[in-house]
Amino acid sequence: MPKILRINTRTREYRLEDMGPYLGLGGRALTSRLVLNEVPATCHPLSKENKLVIATGILSGTRAASSGRISVGAKSPLTLGIKEANSGGQFSQKMAKMDIIGIVLEDQPEADAPLVTIAITKDGIAFHDASQFTFTRTYATAEALQKQFGDKSAAMLIGPAGETLRQSASIQFTDTKYRPARAAGRGGMGAVMGSKRVKAIVVDDTGAAGVTYADDEAFKTASKRWAEILRGHAVTGQGLPGYGTAILVNVINEAGALPTKNFRDGRFQWAADVSGEKMTELMEKRGGKVREGCHTGCAIQCSQTFVDEKGKYLTSGLEYETVWALGPNSMIKEIDEIAKMDHICDDIGLDTIEMGNTVAVAMDGGLLPWGDAKAAQELLNRVADPKDPLGRIVGNGTAFMAEAYGVTRVPVVKRQALPAYDPRAVKGVGVTYATTPMGADHTAGYAVCQNVLKCGGDVNPHNKAGQVETSKALQIATAAIDASGLCLFVAFAVLDTPDGMQTICDMITARTGQKTTPDDVAALGTSILKDEYEFNRRAGFSAADDQLPDFFKEPLAPHNVSWDFTVEELQGAKA
């Protein structure tokens, strides 16, 4: 039976306990329920009252393809509401095979306490002094951790941004090559980890019993069908493996929804130069790797190894959101320079979406010229210096930067920066931005599927009709997927495959022994959202917070569409 590992970061005591009231929950369902139950909603997010919850999904560690996602939850230093940040990497699978479904970091040592690395093996929990890694970037730290704990371990770790409690700090997770290139990026979870003075958690599942199944044969049958579904779909079987998520650059640009120059235009003149197609061309020419999984057992394999013209490693997992945020939104058109910025963000431990918007707002405020990649890189690097005041402003994100420099064009909801789809031209995702408990978040209800890609339906992206209903249904389904440990990209195939959702249910049933139906999955998603709404209500949020900034009422070229939903209309998107 899976256990919850509770670690007191002040006393360095720990205990493994039964799931109790959390029985049957995993991933986002577990993080959000535990945060609701145990974290005072009005507490300071960097205080000892906050807890950092790391949870594997119900299917993590199993033979199910693409089931290696992990959820990280807490009260967010950025939004001041509830937060679940989601990441790939090797950590989730190894943690699940240790029969640990949740890790809870509690309490807080003194602010000047030495950093610690927590190691989890079959023999127990050990605390290792990590003072030598103080303000060390994540790539150097990960390399040292690999040498210390071995190739069969996996790590989650923070960089200087997390140690200095920046509101945009990420938690980085190591991939199959021990690169800290995967991120639980959104909402400042790295700052919460830093407030506990934890530099890294390392797990080694060597000798662990592994995952058990209530019905092993049934799981084999269902997981085989599941792999067929993913490999047989045009997006998960061809598009994403061949070009990565950056295949969307040209698609969204053509749709007139690629935010350009801090959301002033829907098309970027140099989109083809930063597209997935261009990246694939360069990787094939330079000797990079076009297709790889961020964790063992991924059938989609949308990650890659991106190298420069000399074949030197630049970054891995260079995704559409990052390419857009650090590129078109700031008028930067050189893909190699964007890749360098992605590496900087991963290395310092920063959310790339938040940082891309922060750079654009800095350009809007006259701090650096539009399109100047070198200046943007220098600005990001300043976050690593704990004594640099401007670095602290940058590391605290888009809203903070706008306040510091008097910029009024601020693309945030609940203080979290918007992702890579202009909500005027993709209104379904705009509804999601406005109403998700997480702050602006495309993954909370990816209506781009129905609005642009025409997966799972066809809803006109420029009209209001059907958008609220579409977003609501997707937010419910997404919350449930986040509880399963499955990658969100499986939704493309599930939406277009009649037995897709039933196959997920069959795997959960065979794994747990509890009969699970599509109605049960929907009920789970609804319950997760209600937990999150309740936490935010206690924290002081109201319906007035469920709206986009006023500047989105301006018409967006090339389709001259504008944001026209009222707060009252948007409430219909809530579960």
UniProtKB/TrEMBL annotation:
It comes from the Bacteria. InterPro entries: Ald_Fedxn_OxRdtase_dom2 (IPR013984), Ald_Fedxn_OxRdtase_dom3 (IPR013985), Ald_Fedxn_OxRdtase_N (IPR013983), Ald_Fedxn_OxRdtase_N_sf (IPR036503), OxRdtase_Ald_Fedxn_C (IPR001203), Tungsten_al_ferr_oxy-like_C (IPR036021), W-dependent_AOR (IPR051919). Signal peptide: none annotated. The keyword Metal-binding applies. Its cofactor is [4Fe-4S] cluster; tungstopterin. SUPFAM superfamilies: Aldehyde ferredoxin oxidoreductase, C-terminal domains (SSF48310), Aldehyde ferredoxin oxidoreductase, N-terminal domain (SSF56228). One of its GO terms (molecular function) is oxidoreductase activity, acting on the aldehyde or oxo group of donors, iron-sulfur protein as acceptor. Gene3D superfamilies: Aldehyde Ferredoxin Oxidoreductase Protein, subunit A, domain 2, Aldehyde Ferredoxin Oxidoreductase Protein, subunit A, domain 3, Aldehyde ferredoxin oxidoreductase, N-terminal domain. Keywords: 4Fe-4S, Iron, Iron-sulfur, Metal-binding, Oxidoreductase. It holds the Pfam family AFOR_N. Residues 1-207 form the Aldehyde ferredoxin oxidoreductase N-terminal domain. Belongs to the AOR/FOR family. This is Aldehyde ferredoxin oxidoreductase. It comes from Desulfocurvibacter africanus subsp. africanus str. Walvis Bay.
